[in-house]
Amino acid sequence: MGAVHPENSSATTRVFVALAPPDPAKDELARALRPAYAAYPRMRWNRIEDWHLTLAFLGEQPVSAVDLLRAPLAELAASREALTFALTGGGHFDERVLWSGVEGDTDALHLLAGEVRALVKGCGIVFEERRLRPHLTLARARRDDPASVVEVAGSLSGFAGMRWPAARLHLVASNVGRGPGPIRYRDVESWAFRDPASGPLPALSRP
Question: Motif HXTX 2 residues (predicted)?
């Protein structure tokens, strides 16, 4: 299969593959963040519905590349059981990006991310690989206010959330909201992971 490059199409979208916490886990963290929402309104807070755990960031890609991923990602999800995680604590990247930590099946998460990235490459899609650092991005600081992120990260140090299964594999795009405002995401499609009660694991076909 020939390589798919972003420059080969004028119609592009920013796309990534991710897991997402269920609503009860997100609501629990949102309640812990209420004092920070009130105290730091100038921070660029991500919408709760956009919280996700990135497995592979593919960057700007032709819209045609998205369709190439649907069937292989569906097959991968159907052959893998859901992993279990908990959101815990808080931190920041370079005093700019606020995040919540992730605990649980992190070794298996790295394996799943490797499978996803190999699958994407097998589809001929070219992207820049980034080291996987499991986290949930919550907000970004304004350039003139880096202290806010550090302070909020400290306030989350004692947070320990419920355990939850990552029930679906998500293909996500962000083609709206570019610019100075918050980034907006939309599910292109998502696929349920395999039910362990459904019998032996099927073999995953290779692209």
Answer: 135-138
What DSSP designation does 181 have? S
Query: Strand, helix or coil at 204?
Result: coil
Three-state secondary structure call for residue 26? helix
User: Domains, the chain, ranges and CATH?
Assistant: 6-194 (3.90.1140.10)
pLDDT of residue 179: 53
CA distance 127 to 125: 7
Cα 53 to Cα 102: distance, rounded to the nearest angstrom: 9
**Residues with catalytic annotation?**
52, 135
Q: Which residues pair with 87 in a beta bridge?
A: 102
pLDDT at site 21: 97
Answer whether 153's CB lies under 8 Å from 94's CB. Answer: no
Give per-10-residue mean pLDDT for the chain (207 aa): 52 92 97 96 92 94 90 96 97 94 97 97 92 94 89 95 97 68 80 80 50
Give CA–CA dist 33/38, Å, rounded.
9
Where are any strands of DSSP class E within the chain? Answer: 12-19, 44-45, 53-62, 83-93, 97-104, 135-140, 160-166, 168-176, 184-192
